Amino acid sequence: xxxxxxxxxxxxVAPKNDVRYYLxxxxxxxxxxxxxxxxxxxxxxxETADVVEPVIVCKTDLANKLKMFNKKSELEITFVAGExxxxxxxxxxxxxxxxxxxxxxxRYESETxxxxxxxxxxxxxxxxxxxxxxIADNKIKGASFTFYNANAACKVEKNAVTGYLMPCRL
Length: 170
Hints:
There is one protein chain. The chain has a single domain (3-165), classed as DNA Polymerase III, Chain A, domain 2. Helix content is 24%, strand content 25%. The chain contains four helices and ten strands. It has helices spanning 3-13, 59-66, 101-107, 122-136; strands at 25-28, 32-36, 40-45, 55-58, 77-80, 83-86, 89-90, 144-146, 154-158, 161-165. The strands form two sheets. Strands 4-1-2-3-10-9-8 form a seven-stranded antiparallel β-sheet, sandwiched between helices. A three-stranded antiparallel β-sheet has the order 5-6-7, with no helix packed on it. Helix 1 packs antiparallel against helix 2 and helix 1 (3-13) runs antiparallel to helix 4 (122-136). The protein is globular, with a radius of gyration of 16 Å. The mean pLDDT is 88.
């Protein structure tokens, strides 16, 4: 996967000025890059070298730095003394505790079955699907949707990119 498109897609999911300030960024762990606005979440399975402690990178700072690059640019996220850098440019971080994403990811994995009608916000679904499509960056336009129950997130998968969209009341 192309790092530029991956980061561009993740910044599209992260909110800009949410009162839950810890959501206003991209969460980087040793094995994943994650963005959520509390209603939808995109998870990219990606090894990130030198990450000792997970960190939340400020969405606004990351988006501004990405403007200096394009899809053909060679981008790399590195860590020096626990601080994240994008091609030698220090990235601002957000203090806070990121939500327990594994709770959403693992909660319904073993419960695949036929479910009752589920409502989804079409604007959020479109935004999440565009973000996943941007990150996955390939010619195949299809994705896999898994529905667990009317109160669980819908899982959307394309290549190594996974999104979760919370249902809404109809």
